[in-house]
Amino acid sequence: MKKDDTVVLETALPNLTLFKKGKVRDVYEYDGNLIFIATDRISVFDVVVPTGIPYKGKVLTALSEFWFKKLAHVTPSHFITSDIGKMGAVGGKDAGLAPFGNVLGRTISDALRGRTMLVKKTCPMPVECVVRGYLAGSAFKEYEETGGIQDIKLPRGLRQSDKLSEPIFTPATKAEGGHDLNIPMKRMIEMVGKEVAQEAVDKSIAIFVEASRYALERGIIIADAKFEWGFLGEELILIDEVFTPDSSRFWPLDGYQPGRPQPSFDKQYVRDYLESTGWDKTPPAPPLPDEVVRKTTEKYLEAYRLLTGKDLV
Ligand SMILES: Nc1ncnc2c1ncn2[C@@H]1O[C@H](COP(=O)(O)OP(=O)(O)O)[C@@H](O)[C@H]1O
Ligand SMILES: [Mg+2]
After folding, report:
1. Span from the CA of 210 to the centroid of ligand 1 (angstroms)
2. Taking the CB of residue 105, how many other CB atoms lie within 10 A of it?
3. Above 90 in pLDDT, residue 4?
4. What is the location of CATH 3.30.200.20 in the chain?
5. Which ligand is nearest to the CA of 123?
6. CATH class as words, domain 18-121
7. Cis before residue 284, ω within 30 degrees of 0?
8. Residue 12 — pLDDT band, cuts 50, 70, 90?
9. Least buried of 114, 129, 159, 282, by fewest C-beta within 10 Å?
């Protein structure tokens, strides 16, 4: 991929129906499938920041594609192609100029190349599937208060960032405002049934184990990861994004030390900056200084490079 300064915060595709606008993605209906566009939006504390992060959408897209292919022998996924030339209406020369972003004057296909996937449209399971190999984030918080996470009991004396004896599955739902809320397994079973729940658990653990083993060889600990699964007919397939800095906690193996938070390959600069401004974490968020943006782009590109062994740019 050539270096370029495209930043896409919003999209507007003429002639296509918007299926969903998430915090990061704009998703359009397309011929029975979905056009799945990762913008350069970044959300912190569940609020989308007004400043875009160059390359973020491209890293999320390329890294997800990398993993969908790598994990294909374990599970089918929604991935069809990221080749914009194969997405007729938006990819072709006739698609016209992009009426959005800092890409005015460029064609739609230029604006979307590298950040767009054609995916199978599914009926998403209403549960976020989280697998944790290490004790961090909301799980650590809950553990400190209750000695476990929801209905999972953990051994006493674990420290922040400690490795768990085996990966655990901790489901969550999206509460109001996009906040994730941990739920007990029995709640997940009430929502989706015992069989589907078991299948989601087994498949989530299987890809977590596979990806963790691979990442560790490349010097990265996958502390935890969030997956989404969707029904394609009767079949449960892996959807959304997978093992990206937005959906997983990546820690450098070098310097890993339990008993404290670990440095990570993600939004830490943005979080730290926003905390330092005294912003009250309700929208709108303040814009980000260039330096914070630049360092965050570097973090995303570095995660891609370390995991895939290739430079995106
Ligand atoms: N194959 C698919 N079929 C249907 N919905 C999907 C598929 N893949 C992802 N989604 C949905 O598309 C949205 C992706 O947008 P995103 O910006 O990541 O949203 P969020 O703010 O919820 O994280 C999510 O709501 C996700 O559930
Ligand atoms: Mg998402």
Report:
1. 23
2. 8
3. no
4. 18-121
5. 1
6. alpha beta
7. yes
8. confident
9. 282
Domain 124-258 top-level CATH class: alpha beta
Start-to-end C-alpha separation, the chain? 5
Amino acid found at 265: F
pLDDT at residue number 93 = 61
Closest CA to 76 of 187, 215, 190, 199: 199
Q: Is residue 250 predicted with pLDDT exceeding 90?
A: yes
Supply the pLDDT for residue 83. Answer: 95
Query: Range(s) for CATH 3.30.470.20 in the chain?
Result: 124-258
Proximal ligand: closest to the CA of 120: 1
Ligand nearest to the CA of 240: 1
Rounded to an integer, the average pLDDT of 194-216 is 98
Please give the mean pLDDT across all residues of the chain: 93
Q: Whose CA is nearest to atom 26 of ligand 1?
A: 240
How many whole angstroms separate alpha carbon 102 and alpha carbon 94? 20
22 lines ligand 1 (CB under 6 A): yes
Question: How far is the C-alpha of 108 from the C-alpha of 261, rounded, in Å?
Answer: 42
Min mean pLDDT across 96-105, 160-169, 272-281, 298-307 is at 96-105
Judge if the beta carbon of residue 122 lies within 6 A of ligand 1.
Answer: yes
